[in-house]
C-alpha cells in the first residue's frame, strides 16, 4: 500500500495478472511474458516522470484490450484452446477435481429428476407449476454449497428460507375450490415469480456466502448469462435427439411418447440444466470470449425490436384501448433488454474507454425507457378505467421496478460516456439492483395471494 492508503503497483500488477489468467487461451508462461512487457513499460513511464498509479494505468492501456490479447494467443495456440473446450485440464489434480465435480453434479441431477418425476405422479398441473422450481434449484444450490464450501450457517439459512417458501406457497388455498383443475391468477403470479426469488437465493450459494461483494455478484450475473447459452445449446441438441427417437420408434410401430413424457423429459431437462451449470464452471473463461460477440450481435437486433414495439404501442389507438396481450409482450421485451444489458455489462472490460457500442447500449436503454413509460401510462389508464386486479398490480409494479433500473443505468452510462463517471459505477448499479428484483418477487409470491383473496 502507498502512504495515502492506495494499493501499490505490485498489488495492481497482481490483480492484472489474475485478470489475464482468466483467459483460457493464456497459460501461466504466457502471462509471465506479458507481465515482463508490462513491467518494462511501467519502468519506462516512471523514468519519464509519471508516478506509480499513472505509469500502471498508461502501461495497461498501451498493452491493449485483454480480449484482443487473448484472441491473439488463441490464434497462435489454437490447438490448446480447442482442447480446453472439450477436455479436462491436463494437470492430474485439476482433472481429478473436474471429474469429481461432474460426478457430484450428476448425482444431484438424478435427484432433481426424481423430484420432478414425483411431482408428475401427483397428476396435478397446478401443483407441478407451483413446485417445479423447488424440485430443481435446491439441487443446483447444493452443488454450489459443496463446491464453494459454503459456511454451515449460510447453508442452513438458505435451506430454511427455501423450505419456508415451499411450505407457505403450498399452504395458500389456491386449490380450495377446484383442486387439481389449475392455478388461480395469484397462483400463476406466484409460480412465475418464485423462480426469480429462488434464483437470487441461489446466488448466495454461488458466491460462497459473499453476496455483499460486488465482484462476486457480477460473477453470478455472468454465470447466469453463460448458463442460458449452454442450456439453450443442450436443449436444441436434446430436442433433436428426442425427435429422432420418437420418429425411429414410430416407424417400427412403437409409441414412445408416453416414455418420453413420463420418464425421459423429467430426468433429461433438469439434468441438462445442471450439466450446463457445470460446463459454465469448467469452461467459463472460454465462454467469456463468446460473450462480447453475442452481445454485439443481439444488441442492435433488440434495439430494432424495441423500436417496432414502441411503434406498435403508439399506433394502437388510445392507450386505454391497448390490448392486454400487447402489454404483456412489452414486459417480456423489457425483461429481455435488461437481461441483455446485464450480460453485456458483465462481459465488458471495465478499464476500456467508452466507444460506439456503449453509445448503442445507451440508445437501447433510452428506447426501452420510452417503451416502459408508454406501457406504464397504458396500464395506469386501464386501472383507472376498470379497477385493480392482481395481474394489473403485478404488471404495474414490475414496470416501475424496470423503470428505475433503466433510469439509473441510462444516467450512469451517460456520465461514463461523457467522462464524468466510471464504468465501475454502471456495474455496481446492476448488481446492487438485483436485491430490488428479489424484494419485488417476494412481495408478489407472499403478499399478493392473501391481498387479492387468492383469486
Question: How would you describe this structure to a colleague?
Answer:
Mean pLDDT is 79; it is low at 1-6 and 76-95. Helix 1 packs antiparallel against helix 2 and helix 11 crosses helix 12 (324-347). The chain has helices at residues 9-21, 28-47, 52-63, 66-76, 78-86, 92-121, 125-147, 152-171, 185-206, 214-251, 257-314, 324-347, 356-386, 390-417, 423-446, 448-451. Helices cover 81% and strands 0% of the residues. With 455 residues, it is an all-alpha fold. The radius of gyration is 25 Å and the shape is globular. The chain contains 16 helices and no strands. The N and C termini lie far apart (61 Å).
The biggest sheet, with number of strands, parallel, antiparallel or mixed sense and barrel status, is:
none
Rg estimate, integer Å: 25 Å
Low-confidence stretches: 1-6, 76-95
Strand content: under 5%
Q: What class do helices, strands and sheet pairing give?
A: mainly alpha
How many helices? The count is 16
Give the terminus-to-terminus CA distance: 61 Å
Mean pLDDT metric: 79
Secondary structure: number of strands: 0
Shape: globular
Oligomer, anyone?
A: single chain
Please provide the ordered H/E string of secondary-structure elements. Answer: HHHHHHHHHHHHHHHH
Q: What is the share of helical residues?
A: over 70%
Amino acid at each position: 500500500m502507498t502512504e495515502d492508503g492506495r494499493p501499490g503497483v505490485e498489488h495492481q500488477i497482481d490483480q492484472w495478472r489474475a485478470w489475464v489468467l482468466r483467459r483460457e487461451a493464456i497459460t501461466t508462461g504466457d502471462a509471465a511474458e506479458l507481465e515482463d512487457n508490462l513491467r518494462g513499460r511501467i519502468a519506462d513511464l516512471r523514468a519519464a516522470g509519471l508516478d506509480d498509479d499513472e505509469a500502471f494505468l498508461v502501461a495497461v492501456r498501451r498493452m491493449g484490450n485483454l480480449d484482443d490479447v487473448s484472441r491473439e494467443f488463441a490464434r497462435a495456440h489454437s490447438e490448446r484452446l480447442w482442447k480446453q473446450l472439450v477436455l479436462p485440464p491436463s494437470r492430474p489434480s485439476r482433472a481429478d477435481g473436474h471429474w469429481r465435480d461432474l460426478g457430484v453434479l450428476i448425482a444431484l441431477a438424478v435427484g432433481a429428476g426424481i423430484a420432478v418425476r414425483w411431482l408428475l405422479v401427483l397428476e396435478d398441473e397446478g401443483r407441478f407449476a407451483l413446485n417445479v422450481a423447488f424440485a430443481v434449484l435446491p439441487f443446483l444450490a447444493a452443488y454450489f454449497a459443496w463446491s464453494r464450501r459454503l459456511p454451515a450457517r449460510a447453508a442452513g439459512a438458505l435451506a430454511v428460507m427455501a423450505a419456508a417458501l415451499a411450505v407457505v406457497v403450498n399452504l395458500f388455498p389456491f386449490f380450495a375450490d377446484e383442486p387439481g383443475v389449475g392455478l388461480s391468477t395469484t397462483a400463476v403470479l406466484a409460480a412465475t415469480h418464485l423462480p426469480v426469488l429462488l434464483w437470487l437465493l441461489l446466488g448466495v450459494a454461488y458466491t460462497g456466502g459473499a453476496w455483499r461483494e460486488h465482484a462476486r455478484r457480477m460473477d453470478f450475473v455472468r454465470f447466469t448469462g453463460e448458463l442460458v447459452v449452454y442450456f439453450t445449446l443442450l436443449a436444441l441438441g436434446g430436442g433433436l435427439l428426442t425427435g429422432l427417437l420418437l420418429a425411429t420408434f414410430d416407424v417400427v410401430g412403437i409409441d414412445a411418447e408416453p416414455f418420453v413424457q413420463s420418464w425421459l423429459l423429467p430426468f433429461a431437462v433438469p439434468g441438462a440444466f445442471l450439466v450446463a451449470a457445470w460446463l459454465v464452471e469448467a469452461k467459463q473463461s472460454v465462454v467469456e470470449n463468446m460473450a462480447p460477440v453475442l452481445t454485439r450481435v443481439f444488441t442492435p437486433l433488440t434495439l430494432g425490436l424495441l423500436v417496432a414495439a414502441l411503434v406498435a404501442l403508439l399506433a394502437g389507438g388510445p392507450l386505454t384501448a391497448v390490448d392486454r396481450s400487447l402489454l404483456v409482450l412489452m414486459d417480456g421485451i423489457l425483461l429481455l433488454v435488461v437481461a441483455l444489458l446485464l450480460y453485456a455489462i458483465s462481459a465488458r472490460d471495465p478499464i476500456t474507454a467508452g466507444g460506439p457500442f456503449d453509445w448503442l447500449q445507451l440508445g437501447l436503454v433510452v428506447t426501452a425507457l420510452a417503451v416502459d413509460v408508454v406501457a406504464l401510462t397504458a396500464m395506469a389508464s386501464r386501472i383507472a378505467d376498470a379497477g385493480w386486479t392482481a395481474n394489473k398490480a403485478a404488471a404495474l409494479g414490475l414496470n416501475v421496478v424496470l423503470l428505475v433500473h433503466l433510469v439509473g443505468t441510462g444516467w450512469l452510462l451517460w456520465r461514463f460516456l461523457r467522462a464524468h463517471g466510471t464504468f465501475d459505477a454502471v456495474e455496481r448499479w446492476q448488481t446492487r439492483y438485483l436485491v430490488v428484483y428479489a424484494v419485488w418477487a417476494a412481495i408478489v409470491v407472499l403478499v399478493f395471494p392473501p391481498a387479492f383473496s387468492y383469486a
